[in-house]
Design a protein that fits this description.
The chain is an alpha+beta fold. The protein has 2 domains: 131 residues, no CATH class; 72 residues, ACT domain (Alpha-Beta Plaits). Helix content is 61%, strand content 19%. It is built from 7 helices and 6 strands. A hairpin with a 2-residue loop joins strand 4 and strand 5. The longest helix is centred in the middle third of the chain and has 25 residues. The chain starts with a helix and ends with a strand. The relative contact order is 0.11.
Length: 209
């Protein structure tokens, strides 16, 4: 009885710790979801182990946990145009289930080390991305604006006024509108500031990266 209580508590603690990080960053699978997945995987693993002791196949239920969690993770993946989001959340759900299975089999150290490694990875990646935002890198701005060359010059002038050199500029005309692509080197802060200011121009209809 004491052992199952330890497993339940550890599953909730480890799943909750990973879920809090996800929820803090406003991701689909948050605190409650990760707790339930970790706890469920642990319980199924314990049942699978008991089946093995009773003469059944100990890997039968455990194998289905991996497949079942894959369907849950797939629900968090969505596509918008060429951008795919939710892959990290889906992978996180999968790993949380693996941690729950470790707890179920009594591998408490493995489960704790894995959870700690994931937290360090998630937080470390975000810190690295924040630092990268301070460095200049090539980026492209795509604009749709009114079909007027003075407007194109005004857009380019606004960017260069921010002490940013334009490396390449292309203009095409479709549906009586100019489609402009501008390649330059920005920091993350500069890119956000400039795109926000360009969108406020009445001559600019839309802007995307």
């Amino acid at each position: 009885m004491e052992e199952i209580i330890i497993k339940i508590i550890l599953s909730l603690v480890l799943g909750g710790a990973l879920g809090m990080e996800r929820q803090y960053h406003d991701k689909p699978a948050g605190y409650a979801t990760n707790c339930l997945i970790c706890l469920g995987a642990m319980l199924f693993t314990v049942l699978s182990d008991l089946m093995g002791q009773a003469g059944g196949d100990p890997g039968r239920i455990a194998a289905q946990v991996v497949t079942g969690v894959g369907f849950i993770g797939a629900g968090s993946i969505w596509r918008s145009g060429n951008k795919i989001s939710g892959l990290t959340t889906a992978a996180g759900v999968w790993v949380v289930a693996a941690i729950g299975m470790c707890v179920g089999y009594g591998q408490y150290l493995w489960a704790t080390l894995a959870a700690a490694a994931i937290l360090i990875l998630q937080l470390g990646v975000r810190k690295t991305i924040t630092l990268m935002e301070l460095l200049k890198h090539y980026d492209t701005i795509f604009l749709i604006c009114e079909p007027n060359w003075d407007t194109v010059k005004k857009i380019a002038g606004h960017i260069e006024k921010q002490r940013i050199s334009i490396l390449k500029q292309e203009v095409t005309k479709q549906d009586n509108r100019f489609h402009v692509s501008i390649v330059a080197t920005f920091t993350g802060h500069e890119f956000q500031k400039i795109t926000r200011e360009l969108l406020e121009m009445p001559e600019v209809y839309s802007l995307y990266k």
